[in-house]
Amino acid sequence: MNGTEWIGLLKNKTVAFLGAGNMAEAMISGTVQSGKIPNDQIIVSNRSNKVRLQEVNAKYNVLTMLKDDLPFEEIDILILAMKPKDIDKALDSINHLVKRDTVIMSVLAGITTSHMEEQLPAGQSVIRVMPNTSSMLKESATAISAGRFTSEDDMKSAKELLSSIGEVYVIDESEMDIFTGIAGSGPAYFYYLMEHIEKTGAEAGLDPKLARKIGAQTIFGAAKMMLEREETPTQLRENVTSPNGTTAAGLDALAEFGGGKAISEAVKGAEKRSKEISSELQSRQLVTN
């Protein structure tokens, strides 16, 4: 589908981003590249950073404006992409402005649909979303979970929009924290791994950029094989591991230094923090009330 053939539930929809940080930019980039929504129907806003908005406008040729200038009566899908700690202030500032039929999508880790529903007009459609920064290349793994008042058509529109930035998975909200630990934070685990691969390659005499390309292509190829074949990760690992060979030696070192444990703890740590953010916000709201 090219940029002039966008069809379906997104036709004539206006999508606005409230927040223009890295995650928002990644989604904007993927959405613009997909051509599913004309650029003049994409609005990017923040509270006061005009310089940042000018950068986004120059880079993606979408509409940009400060939050106070948003035409809320024209917005069909409003994507909340500010920092999680700012969610209550943001909801308080828009709850009397959003249309009843506007779909609110949040990409904020740890912020539950019920938390948002409590601060928005009764019956407002809220959808919780967890993409990752691979959205920029239309390769995100994105989870989506509906709130109490979200209709089937709302979900279809959200899935159509999010499919422009990668694969979309509909999950129960109870699974969103572990999804955050795996996919939302996942790119950072990969970059951390690549830091060490690049460093080790350089220490052995490889040009750092070459080591980086070798490592990235190797992992890309392995991931592609896993997606396209039916074997489990265990089976694929065993297939490439010869007894007493180089791969076995490398895997032995990973086991000795706790590589598997470290990966598990990284995912659990991100999952735990997502839950903590939700609890902290609920506690803060109770104190405020």
From TrEMBL:
Transmembrane segments: none annotated. Its main location: cytoplasm. It is found in: Cytoplasm. Its EC number is 1.5.1.2. It holds the Pfam family P5CR_dimer. One of its GO terms (molecular function) is pyrroline-5-carboxylate reductase activity. InterPro entries: 6-PGluconate_DH-like_C_sf, NAD(P)-bd_dom_sf, P5C_Rdtase_cat_N, P5CR_dimer, Pyrroline-COOH_reductase. Catalyzes the reduction of 1-pyrroline-5-carboxylate (PCA) to L-proline. Belongs to the pyrroline-5-carboxylate reductase family. This is Pyrroline-5-carboxylate reductase. It comes from Rossellomorea oryzaecorticis.
